[in-house]
Amino acid sequence: MAEEQAGEKTDEATPKRAEDARKKGQIPRSKELTTASLLIFAGLGLKWTGPGMVETLLDVSKKSFGFRVIQSNDDWWLVSVLMDSVAEIFIATIPLFAMLFVAAAVSPIILGGWNFSAESLAFKGDRLSPLNGFKRMFGISALIELIKGVGKFSIVGVVAFSILNKMFDELLSLETESLEMAIQHGLSLVLLAFLGVSASLLMIVAIDVPYQIWNHNKELKMTKQEIKDEYKDSEGRPEIKSKIRQQQRAMAQRRMMSEIPTADVIITNPDHYSVALKYEDFGTRAPVVVAKGVDIIAFKIREIARAHNITIVQAPPLARSIYYTTKLNHEIPNGLFLAVAQVLAYVYQLNTYEKTGGRRPQLNDNIPIPDDLSY
Question: What is the mean pLDDT of residues 297-303?
Fold first, then answer.
């Protein structure tokens, strides 16, 4: 029983599984959405550009058939008329084809987004397998497609019948109109019917799109064993481990930098080393190192300290000693208490001097550093 449960695909796909599927071109797509978009855009395009195209066709017809007999003997004249006619018709249809191009390009992106996969274009022998072809023809997917086809036929048939039934009287009245008016009126009715039938496909789209998303997620589901294997594989790859360590270092550095504004003093080398000390419970706890770094990190620590008006003290031996002997977020060693106490006292005196004035305090140049803590 446990083995059967382990083999069932009950868990949602991991980000890696989803990304791998995307690289293979396995993304949700709806042919019904693309078809409906193309038909609706075609109908709207004809509605907006149709009058202009009809006018262009009429003008071309008048120019093409309104010529003198002597002109028909000139081969170059016939060629020029043909080329001009083709150019005019092409220009008149550009807006319509532009709308169709946009619809064809954008509608697939709506579901699943843009994706180009070279793997999906590669030759695969299993595509030629008769057995796989038989499964596709008589599988669940084929049954779903059959149901959709019957549904489309039924919906389009009902909508088309309803539209024609409502237009029946107008269609009969066309014989009472002039030829030009009848053509214009008839074309407008055909266009309206085309738009109505195209819009009816949206009902199929409303069902097909959620189904494609659900079916795609279902196909990507994983067994618990697959998730375990993927985790082991990812953790064992050197590039993944390196990336994880890099991200962890970056997160730790961001946390460290965010603690600098809480520091009481920054002790520097002055250029290569910087350590930030925080001393909260005076007399009960030792100062804590909230940030430390060398070179570029040391420079960033000093920059943040200046931005928050934190006192920066140059004490090279002490800065190096704290950097090498004290871990981040740990208290300084007992042997450095006296040296750090002198620095904190100097900072306190300096703050008092800046508020009240008087004689500027001086830091002791010979800060005591035990030999076993010297670097």
Answer: 91
Q: Pairing between strand 312-314 and 265-268? A: parallel
Contact 156, 197 (CB under 8 A): yes
**Distance from C-alpha of 373 to C-alpha of 272, rounded to nearest angstrom:** 18
Q: Do 365 and 324 meet the contact criterion of CB atoms below 8 Å apart? A: no
Choose the CATH number for 259-373 among 3.40.1690.10, 3.30.70.100, 3.30.365.10, 3.30.450.20. Answer: 3.40.1690.10
Question: In whole angstroms, how far apart are CA 186 and each of 54, 103, 165, 173?
Answer: 13, 27, 15, 10
Looking at residues 255-274, what average pLDDT do you find?
89
330 φ/ψ angles, rounded to the nearest 5 degrees: -115, 155
Q: How far apart are CA 337 and CA 369, in angstroms?
A: 10
Phi, psi of 292 (to 5 degrees): -160, 155
Report the candidate in 272, 287, 273 with the shortest Cα–Cα distance to residue 336: 287
Q: pTM of the entire structure? A: 0.48
Rg (CA), the chain: 39
